[in-house]
What we know:
By secondary structure, the protein is of the alpha+beta class. Helix content is about 25%, strand content about 25%.
Amino acid sequence: MAGIEExxxxxxxDYKEVEIIEIAVKVGDVVxxxxxxxxxxxxxxxxxxxxxxxxxxxxxxxxxxDKVSKGxxxxxLSAIGEAAAPVAxxxxxxxxxxxxxxxxxxxxxxxxxxxxxxxxxxxPASDHLAEGGDIYAGPAIRRYARELGVSLALLAGRGxxxxxxxxxxxxxxxVKESLQKLxxxxxxxxxxxxxxxxIDFTPFGEVEVSPLxxxxxxxxxxxxxxxxxxxxxTQFDEADxxxxxxxxxxxxxxxxxxxxxxxxxxxxxxxxxAALKAFPNFNASLDPEGDKLYLKRYYHLxxxxxTPNGLxxxxxxDCDQKGMKALSMELAEISERARKGxxxxxxxxxxxxxxSSLGGIGGTxxxxxxNAPDVAILGVSKSFIKPVYxxxxxxxxxxxxxxxxYDHRVIDGAEAARFTRYLVAQLADIRRLLL
Length: 435
Ligand code: CAO
């Protein structure tokens, strides 16, 4: 290209005075031939106007909102490497309109990088948007998505146009599907995420397909929702259960004769009830609108039970009104029914707080997922002997690790730390549970 050249709007059919909705380049940018310069929007469609040749943008003659017709000057392009010259001095014959590339419907163009060089739409794989993800879409399509409040990141991999380009219809399909999910009660949280890609693993090695159990599929949906919707924080603490354990072991044999299996969990349940009475915000549910709390005057504890088919959380009611023996028996009975798959829906309803104990298995701590509509859950790990410094000497103490996950919308960190400290005090001296 010799010198400089005016770039004009080519033949755009019957359209006149069409509004510019987006400008993809700025003065100083180097553009490749066919790279889009501006986007026009008629009442029916959006179209990108590409550069007829490569060069450097010396001057922009239009701005967003301007109305243009065939022949309107868009920009002044100078040959790369040539010194910029004033337009008036340049021998810049307007290109014949038939020589200019035709405007491209928006569905047929790519996203422009915003760096110095604006490339032609030939390599979709290298397209990136500021919002992240590989999206192959024109400016008008991006604008359309913005207008509908759809994050482009959510549209990754959904383009059905040529080479995976995103079309207007793809956005509309996405919106429709999202609304349908809302209607079905799924994904009504504004937190829709891009779908996991379906991967063929066989090129990597032998694979066996094992369907998820019904319980896993059902609980998976709830676990996912709770994990995504509730801002979880987990507070860790340790309770000295040396005296508690001495008492439990001393009573164990006698109780077993009565058919009672006394495990540390029952003490934890009683301590939790005491803590819930002292900290009512933990024995509550948050209204879905997030503007009020339902404070419960009952103490029904959900207890996570590991079954061959997956995790279930039956509820033991009125734990405040039951003694340790009764709680032990009920826990044994309900976990037995859970493992045999005999729980009814109502057995798993109405909890006001939940406990997940992995103490019989092992581990030091974990971050349990809140069992909504509860606002907190206590994880219990395996007790262990720890040297504790007391009266100028280390003494072996049996410590019980506690992991309290709580809904940070309802409970502050300080409140959670006080709750676990309270629990620790109850468990350290079980006489307090009598108070
Ligand atoms: N530390 C040390 N030992 C513990 C313990 C702890 N925190 N908790 C239990 N134990 C001991 C018990 O005392 C018992 O030993 P003894 O028979 O010698 O007394 C043994 O471990 C097995 O206990 P258990 O697990 O059968 O009984 P439990 O009352 O502690 O728990 C139940 C009952 C139903 C909660 C449990 O069997 C279970 O299913 N736990 C898994 C829950 C789960 O999967 N949670 C993860 C959910 S994801 O968040």
